Amino acid sequence: MTTVISLGGSIVAPDGVDTEFLASFRRLLRERIQLHHERFVLVVGGGGPARRYQQAYRELNSDADNETADWIGIRATWLNAELVRAVFGPDCTQAVVTNPYEADPGAGDAVVVAAGWKPGFSTDFDAVVLAERFGADSVLNLSNIEQVYSADPKLDPHATPLERMNWEKFRKLVGDDWNPGANAPFDPVASRRAAELGLKVVVAAGRNLENLAEILSGGEYHGTTIGPE
Question: Which pLDDT score is estimated for 228?
Fold first, then answer.
């Protein structure tokens, strides 16, 4: 069984590196690997460093463009992903995947780590492509967002958290366009592709590892499940 996890950079490196989280996250996944022979594909985001560097670029350039901002964010994901790959040591011996279409599902490692690919696509999109390539039927999207709301709770005081929603409703919520540094629960381009593939996406708080254990075990969990119906 292969589980694809889109691991938000805001969990790995909100400001500095969260070593306590990484140690606990590694322990949980290694237990699953040893006890259940599971395999994990981890797609790591850029987090705080990506947004800070993108912001600096925009502040220093009146003609800043999205493609350059995207490349800055992508390079931040490479740094975070290289750290995560190294943290898993012998469980992840192959290089960080930077093109999801070139990932090798036949490689023997228990953990595969991927990072950003190219402008116009987020690590959420990479996770969807990797789920297709590795034969996974779902993506776990772990970030600093616990659940998807009916509207942006920062703008709408009446917004309510949702436990389930279909792709049609979710795509109306997030729109169609990808913007570098955007903080949507799951990005619009990735959402369109996931809907086409009939994938399920679970949005949950990344630091709640007890909750993650429940998700992996098929138990009851706190989050939002987005799917075909």
Answer: 84
CATH number at residue 39: 3.40.1160.10
Q: How confident is the model at residue 176 (pLDDT cuts 50, 70, 90)?
A: low
Q: How confident is the model at residue 179 (pLDDT cuts 50, 70, 90)?
A: low
Torsion angles phi and psi, residue 65, rounded to 5 = -120, 155
| Dihedrals phi, psi of 98, to nearest 5 degrees | -115, 0
Residue range of the domain that includes 200 = 2-227
Is residue 181 predicted with pLDDT exceeding 60?
no
Question: Whose structure tokens read 């996974």?
Answer: 136
pTM: 0.91
Six-digit token string for 52: 């800070």
Split into its structural domains, the chain has a count of 1
State the Cα–Cα distance between residues 98 and 218, nearest whole angstrom: 30
Which residues, including other chains, have CB under 8 Å from residue 59's CB and lie 6 or more apart?
none
- In terms of Cβ atoms closer than 10 Å to its own Cβ (0-12, 13-18, 19+), residue 168 is exposed
Q: Map residue 118 onto helix, strand or coil.
A: coil
Q: Where are the beta strands (DSSP E) in the chain?
A: 2-7, 39-44, 111-114, 138-143, 148-149, 161-162, 164-166, 200-205, 224-227
